[in-house]
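EI: anyone free to look at a 299-residue chain?
SC: sure, send it
EI:
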Amino acid sequence: MSAVQARPEKPDPSRYRRPRAIPQPGVFKTSRFLAGLRATGIALWTLWLAVLNLRSILAKRGVTPAVTMQWHKMTQRIAAIDVRVTGTPIRDRPVLFVANHASYLDIVVLGALLPCSFVSKSEVRDWPIFGWLAVQQRTVFIERDPRKADRHLSEMKQRIEDGGCLVLFPEGTSSDGSRVLPFKSALFQSASIEFPKTGQIEVQTVSIAYNRLDGMPMGRALRPLYTWFGDMELVPHLMGWLGLGTVGVDVVFHEPLRMADVGGRKELAQATQRACTQGLQTALHNAPQPSSPIVQAAS
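SC: here you go
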């Protein structure tokens, strides 16, 4: 099931320009019927999987990575999300994925590709419905208390030892999808985790780009139909894009790094931010990455 990001912070005028993004009449019209149909389909699919995995849910263990991937893949189909993948994600050794964050849809996109748990702010746990979904995904909830850092690292390590991987959004909030905000080095403490056989955990950068609508390039003006940031309301935003056509998302997996390779948390944050920015800008211009053929994501 899906983890959900903490509510984005109020927009900083120096960081964003007010989006002119809501389509003009006659250009892109949201179908309320289609939105309702898709929302109902996702709700029924969620309920069905919950019934099948009731024992794990009642035991408060969350469901397995295989089940969460199954949920995300079907949700993508119902919601008409078309994902293209460039590069190869690490699957055979401990890994921390760090990605830019533009929408709650990032979780559905990555959750269908990776047997992962997400790292989220602790407040999300108490959200109605979405908090429950985050718990089923086995989200690692981080509290703003330095005294609990060791416990958080231990929990992250356990998630990986249980056969999954971790996904971190180091911007700390969501953006407008046209840029990558500065990565917060404090969030890279988890990159210090070590394992007996493989050593320090590897960090693989991921760029996520919302760049197509019904197969046509999506410019900056239309991107906020799918990206969620600033003071946008969740339910109207959700029902808006559910009533549109097929959104195209490019996901770029970059070469992995270890914190020891670059020096420390600050250097790792800078290196991964540069890679993420390069991948995002290339994908937004619909150009394939060098020597990495784009393939259709498995469903």
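EI: The two ends are 16 Å apart (CA to CA).
SC: 👍
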